[in-house]
Amino acid sequence: MQQALQPSPPQHVGLIGDFASEDASGPQLSSGNFQILVMALRWASTRGSEAARWQLLRSYTALSRAQFRQAPAPAAFARSEPLATSGVLTAPAGANSLLLDSARFMSQRPARRRSSSGGDGKAESTEKQAAATSATYEMLLQRLYQVNRFSAVKLGLENMQELNAAFGDPASQFEIVHVAGTNGKGSVAFKMAKALERSGYKTGLFVSPHVACFRERVQVNGTLISESEVCEALSEIFNISAQLRIPATFFEITTMLAFLHFAKQGVDCVVLETGLGGRLDSTNIVNPALSVITSIGLDHTRILGNTREVIAREKAGIIKPNVPVVVGPNTPVNVMMEYAARNNAPLVRVPLQAEFDEDYNAENTAIAREACVQLNALHALQTGGARSSKELCIDMTSKSVNAALESRPPCRFQVLHVMRPNSKERKVTVVLDVAHNPQAIDRLVGLLHKRFPDKKFRFVCGFSADKAINKVLDKIADVVHESHPDESDEELHSRIHLVKANHPRGASLEEINLALANSCVDGEQKREYDSISSIKEGVDAALAASRASSDDEVVVVCGSVFLMAEARQALGLKEPIDSAALNSVAGSHMSTPESRLSAAAEEAEVAAAT
């Protein structure tokens, strides 16, 4: 049987009919055939015809479905249907999907003859091509954002496993550091990616959500994926999802796009941030070299559960058998140890230090540093056949690496000094921070007091509709009151400017004020804050008030990642940014997930049944 695993390419294609041994219940995996099929698919994707590729793809996905679901697939599914053999990849007639492959079509069509005028004609052609790519990029992203706008998101791994299988398992082609947590996971992922890059590894980084541009989510050595690369990958994913009838969600498609890009770029390693939770997150199909869980707090409680222990079980779902895991000091250690023991996974917990209460970046740096130490330990062990690709080793004595570990991603306590051009007005210190839940606000407040001990504060705040708005505003009001102890409530509240993000998930001013009214106890007067219709107007008003004040104020913009793009624009920062039309629908994919049992509830139900 071992000899059958290395047939020549023609034999790969000829063996399709023997891959599934069918009985009354459908196709079943034959010994060794699944591995042959993987090899055949990879061969066909580079050298075979489109027809051969589609035949292999359908057989592979049929067997994958049977394996992943641990239940037989319909017998008819493994049989190839007639497919187009020329032109772009298309699904069979009648597939319920709009198929877009304009990026590939544009790249394959013959170039128009240029006039002999030289440089001007070439520049004009380049501009037209760039404009066409941008138009395709916008069209495809509009479609992506609409994927599950009007239906509930069904959390689970099945769709992602099928998509990954359909593309030949790109998720296994590089080493992975998998990062989850309520707060800090984006910062830790950013720090680790920088450290790996400066250690000489070609490093991919996958994070979410983005601040101003969708392409921020997928980076290689700090370079964002290009618009044309997004177009090419999305076209392929849309086509295959329709062909194989995989109802992939926004985040599943985006995760698949990242895997395809990283594989195409030939990266050595990837730092992969989870989107929501961990156990059923789209990223959790991987077998990482190292898992990291940064912190556990109360966020997304409607989906993940309403206690830290229940949420911890969801995050701990990324712990894999025999894979080391690093956990931060603000995690329920009993839950982490339980899951690590269950998976025979070595666990290292970063000890709590006093400075973490005042500086959350110090905690994130400590977690990232410990994760690097554990990667070096894996390298030193030289485990031989346990892993086939090269181990990762980070030079912890390098000044460049240590600077990377101390760095911050944008909008994580990002300090700016703002002054209008050609103006003699004093500079205003502005802090941008994506803190959006009570735990994150506590940490932001601690860092504000540490960094600006004698300053007074003014806030520009906006929120997502599903956040604990009243609790967050209570904490912000306390900070303002502490820095202005002699002012009346009315004066204090005028120093908090409420805004609405231009985003589907952004809470309206009416929703914010309703949350404040509902939080009042009997006889308590509702707090009235300064309500402003747009983020730009809110930032401008805060800057103007700060300049006019005799106090040396710091303006803090916080409450939601969805504020940051417009806030940075209002402050004059230049960066890649998607169109207003795209950003206005960028959260429309975040519909309410279907109600489901949390990991703890599922375990309790199973225990009761047995």
From TrEMBL:
UniProt region (Disordered), positions on chain: 107-129
One protein family per Pfam: Mur_ligase_M
Domain Mur ligase central: 179-358
Coiled coil stretches, renumbered: none
Keyword Metal-binding: yes
Domain Mur ligase C-terminal: 424-560
An annotated Gene Ontology molecular function: metal ion binding
Keywords: ATP-binding, Ligase, Magnesium, Metal-binding, Nucleotide-binding
GO cellular component, one term: mitochondrion
Protein family (similarity comment): Belongs to the folylpolyglutamate synthase family.
UniProt-recorded name of the protein: Uncharacterized protein
Source organism of the structure: Phytophthora fragariae
